[in-house]
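Onboarding guide, step 5: your first structure request.
Type a short instruction followed by the sequence, for example:

Predict the 3D structure of this protein.
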Amino acid sequence: MGGINVKNTMIEALLLKVAPHLCFGCGKTGTTLCHNCKYNITSELFLGCVLCGDISPEGICAQHDTPICKAWVVSKRLTVLKKVVDAYKFENVKAASRVLVDLMDTRLPLLPVGTVIVPIPTASSHIRQRGYDHIHILARLLAQKREMPIAHLLQRSSGVTQHRLNKAQRQQEADGAFYILETATINPDTPLLIIDDIITTGSTISSAAKVLANAGAKTIFVVALAYQPLD
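The system replies with structure tokens like these:
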């Protein structure tokens, strides 16, 4: 699940030669996001709390009781970043995964040696719809770029689509959304980096962090592509 599909990869390579990608920002031929458009995104980083949106250099403000130590988000889900993220997540533009990981890697600082990437598990129904596990791909590419291990510690209890829920419903759904796999082992001294795509209320990452903390994790970080507050 979420691994490399050789047939699909060959088809993507052939299509790239026949019809090269256009930059989502300026339309330049040859890449999903050109250097200048990457710069425009990374020059407007999201520097707020992932749980409430208030300004917070650490990504988490003091008013929240959470095991999350620090969090990093590339930018708000606006303009060009919104186009790229939505194309990858909702329109099966799998090729956008690499440029999104480049943005994520740029946003992340140096992490403690031994930090392990923990992907937020994707609902099985969404994997079937897309034909791939979009979070797993991001985690795998980031792990390759940073030379970090991945651990699939979390399992999803529910397949409810959160983007159709309000804030209260999201929190209620997230409270029991995850559990630790029976085969998983958590070393309290190993820092964990939760990876997700879009943060809205923070209920998903907050629930995942609590489950990991209850299982013994002491140092929990979060990284995501975009912050999208509820309207």
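Each response can be followed by summary notes, for example: Residues 1-7, 14-18 have pLDDT under 50 and may be disordered.
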